[in-house]
Amino acid sequence: MAATRSLLLSLSILLLLCFNTSCKDTHDLDEEDLSFLEEDEHDAAESPLHGYEDHDFENYDDLDDFGDGEGEYPDSESAPEVEIDESDVVVLNGSNFHDFLEKNRYAMVEFYVPWCGHCQALKPEYAAAATELKADEVALAKMDAGEETELAQKYNVEGYPTVLFFIDGVHKPYNGARNKDAIVTWVKKKIGPGLHNLTTTEEAESILTSESPVVVAFVENLVGPDSEELAAASKQEDEVSFYQTSSADVAKLFHIDPKGKRPALVLVKKEDEKVSHFGGQFVNSAITEFVSKNKLPLVIYFTRASSSQVFENPIKNQVILFTTLNETEKYLPIFQEAAKYFMGKALFVYVPMDEEDAGKPVAEYFGIEGSAPKVSISIIIIIIIMHSPPHFL
């Protein structure tokens, strides 16, 4: 027990020193320290990835393409041709791009290049999503970014495929999984009602057992300014369900004081901290910030699926624990305890360094070897996340 307290105290002190000193000056660091991250995707410069030097890893999908001893990602020209029905995918160029956006309130556009293996892999999934979303009056299109360089630059296309979703001409990047179901689900959330009414305790109990995380507001009326602000905030979050209720019995189930001031709002998730109470001004921006900072677990278990929670999070400071799977129960509780003091200020990430699918490649990327647990609080890691994920993610 004494050793545990000592480790927890040491970790907390180290973090406090980091955030009170060097973390404030991350932008002033010598960029040469990070030069290994700036290699061009067509450059053959030396890579920090041990054993993966010849591959251009853009994201976690790339890890699927290699096994032990396998060669490079197969060139798209040598891959067997599979006939794909793309009849519902509109082909765009500089002459019809703007007309397409004007005619379609909801539109998704993929910027691709023919030689990109990931673009080829997305092709059948994207085509299937286009067919399914026709019924919702959502148009899917694609554009060769290599040919239409001016438009690609306008929309800051830096990697392939880049997928943007437009509502009334205003775009938002799609960073979800590259499969039909994920695309369809994400789009339907964007075009459908983001806010739902809760009127019965039966509905509330069902949500408590089946969904996480959820945001619930206790309001005077289910229509009006408060509801509008909440609805606007719901559109900013892809992974959180938003509800509102005027029922005191429903509010009580979500740990809201039914006799307290309205509007009141909580975020509920299936974690140790469970309920987070909102105490700010009841406006879209404040609600969005609150949800963004509180929606994640105390410690994120790093996997392919959770990688977006790390790299797309507005919180850029990160503390990463590397340990083996069989030592998780020994060290993770200590790590979780320290994380409580830094909610909203840093992401705490657990990487099982001997887990083959994601943990081991990440550990190798950061040069973590051996079996001893290590906590990585690195300015370099923070800068990496500020700019972009490592190439192999």
From TrEMBL:
Enzyme Commission numbers on file: 5.3.4.1
UniProt-listed InterPro entries: Thioredoxin-like_sf (IPR036249), Thioredoxin_CS (IPR017937), Thioredoxin_domain (IPR013766)
Region annotated Disordered, chain positions: 60-82
Domain of life: Eukaryota
MF (Gene Ontology): protein disulfide isomerase activity
GO biological process: protein folding; response to endoplasmic reticulum stress
Ranges of residues in domain Thioredoxin: 73-192
GO cellular component, one term: endoplasmic reticulum lumen
Catalytic function, reaction form: Catalyzes the rearrangement of -S-S- bonds in proteins
Cited PANTHER family: PROTEIN DISULFIDE ISOMERASE, PROTEIN DISULFIDE-ISOMERASE
Protein name: protein disulfide-isomerase
Organism: Lactuca virosa
